[in-house]
From TrEMBL:
SMART domains named in the record: PGAM
SUPFAM superfamilies: Phosphoglycerate mutase-like
Protein name: 2,3-bisphosphoglycerate-dependent phosphoglycerate mutase
PROSITE patterns: PG_MUTASE (PS00175)
InterPro entries linked: His_Pase_superF_clade-1, His_PPase_superfam, PG/BPGM_mutase_AS, Phosphogly_mut1
Complex and partners: Homodimer.
Provenance organism: Amorphus orientalis
Gene Ontology BP terms: gluconeogenesis; glycolytic process
Keyword NAD: no
Length: 206
C-alpha cells in the first residue's frame, strides 16, 4: 500500500516580498509565488504523482498555490478540504510590521526569540508550540487516517504549520524543528509506514 503524503509551502506572497510578518493576514501570491507553485505542479506531474484528496488552510496564498498545482496536474476536480487549523502561525502584534522595523522597535534579540524559540509567543500571537497545538490534532484526526488508509494526500500550507507537521512526522524536538527552513513552493514527499512513521522522504528542492 502506498501511503503518500506531500507537503508544499505556499509560493512567495506579497508580504514575503516586502519582508513583513504575515501570520493570519490574507495576502495573495506574487508573480514569483505563482511561478513557484506552477513549478511545484510541473515537478509532481513529471514524477507521475496523483492524489486522492488535498488539504489547505483558510488563507488564499495557500489555496491559490494548491489551485495552481492541481491545474498543472490536471486535477482541478480533486476534493479540497480547507481549514484554519492549517493556517500560518499568528504573529499577533508583529503582523504587518517589517522585520527590520520590528528589530528596531523591540530589539534584535527579542525578535529573534519570538521568531526562533519554540515556546515564546510574540505579544498577542502564537509560538510554534501553540501552532502545533492546533495543527497536530487536525493532522491526527483528518489527514493521517486518510494517508494510512492508502489515500494519496497533498497538503498546501505555511512555513510554521508545516513545521509543526514535520516535527510530528519525523519525530523531531522543538529545538530541531525551529532550525528547519522550508523553501516556498517546494514539494516534500513522504511515504509512511503503517504506524505513521517515515518509510521514505524526498525533498524536491533544486
Amino acid at each position: 500500500m502506498d501511503r503518500l503524503l506531500v507537503l508544499v509551502r505556499h509560493g512567495q506572497s506579497e508580504w514575503n516580498l516586502k519582508n513583513l510578518f504575515t501570520g493570519w493576514h490574507d495576502v495573495g501570491l506574487t508573480d514569483t509565488g505563482r511561478a513557484e507553485a506552477k513549478k511545484a505542479g510541473e515537478l509532481l506531474k513529471a514524477d507521475g504523482y496523483k492524489f486522492d484528496v488535498a488539504f489547505t488552510s483558510d488563507l488564499k496564498r495557500a489555496q491559490d498555490t494548491l489551485k495552481i498545482i492541481l491545474g498543472e496536474l490536471g486535477a482541478d476536480n480533486l476534493p479540497v478540504i480547507k481549514d484554519q487549523a492549517l493556517n500560518e502561525r499568528d504573529y499577533g502584534d508583529l503582523t504587518g510590521l517589517n522585520k527590520d522595523d520590528a528589530r528596531e522597535k523591540f530589539g534584535e534579540d527579542q525578535v529573534h526569540i519570538w521568531r526562533r524559540s519554540f515556546d515564546v509567543p510574540p505579544p498577542g500571537g502564537e509560538s510554534l508550540k501553540d501552532t502545533a497545538a492546533r495543527v497536530l490534532p487536525y493532522y491526527e484526526t483528518e489527514i493521517k487516517p486518510k494517508v494510512l488508509a492508502g489515500e494519496k494526500v497533498l497538503v498546501a500550507a505555511h512555513g510554521n504549520s508545516l513545521r509543526a507537521l514535520i516535527m510530528e512526522i519525523e519525530g523531531l524536538s522543538g529545538e530541531e524543528i525551529i532550525k528547519r527552513e522550508l523553501a516556498t513552493g517546494v514539494p516534500i514527499i513522504y511515504r509512511l509506514n503503517k504506524d505513521g512513521s517515515v518509510a521514505e522522504k524526498k525533498d524536491m528542492a533544486g
